[in-house]
Amino acid sequence: MTLKIKYITLAVMQVLFARRRVYRIILPATLSALPLSALADNYFNPAFLSDDPNAVADLSHFEKGDSQAPGKYHVDIYLNKQLVSTEDVNFKAAKGGQDDTGLAPCFTTGRLEQMGVNTKAFPDLAKLAPEQCVPFAAIPVILHRVRL
């Protein structure tokens, strides 16, 4: 009888240790499969671009994902969904507007008239100097399609 109890006890112990062995394998495998991530902003140190610490570039307008640097861009210009011209347009840094590029095109009132815009319908434009850029409150700029 005691021999039978010893065999039963031995069998129970083997089952318990077998389960423990399985748990030792499954638990770490399961935990390693869990996604361990954290949200953080990307930061690039602009000092890496220059050997001179006094000539560090301003990269603040690139912190947002969809921004462009001010400058000249070759774009298609549309007026009332009709292609007017394709030309180099100077873009200046601007805040606000409908897009997130942070840019506004620089057109003079004379250039708008050449493109067929009725500038007389906007009395505020008459107050501008001839070489001054027209302040567009909101103009959609789609630079990835190089289109105004």
Defining traits:
148 residues; Ubiquitin-like (UB roll); 2 domains; elongated
Describe what is shown at a glance.
It comes from Nosema bombycis (strain CQ1 / CVCC 102059) (Microsporidian parasite). The chain is an alpha+beta fold.
What does this structure look like?
It is found in: Cell outer membrane. Pfam families: PapC_N. Keywords: Cell outer membrane, Fimbrium biogenesis, Membrane, Signal, Transmembrane, Transport. GO terms for molecular function: fimbrial usher porin activity. This is Outer membrane usher protein fimD. The mean pLDDT is 72. This protein has two helices and three strands. It is of the alpha+beta class and 148 residues long. It has two domains: 36 residues; 82 residues, PapC, N-terminal domain (Ubiquitin-like (UB roll)). 26% of the residues lie in helices and 16% in strands. The chain is elongated and about 110 Å long. A three-stranded antiparallel sheet has the order 1-2-3, with no helix packed on it.
> Mind telling me the CATH superfamily name of the largest domain?
PapC, N-terminal domain
Write the CATH architecture name of the largest domain: Roll
The CATH topology annotation of the largest domain reads as Ubiquitin-like (UB roll)
> What share of the residues does DSSP label as strand, in percent?
15-25%
Query: SS-based structural class?
Result: alpha+beta
Radius of gyration: 34 Å
Low-confidence stretches: none
Shape: elongated
Number of domains: 2
Order of helices and strands: HEEEH
Mean pLDDT: 72
Q: N-to-C terminal Cα separation, in Å?
A: 95 Å
Strand segment tally? 3
Oligomer: single chain
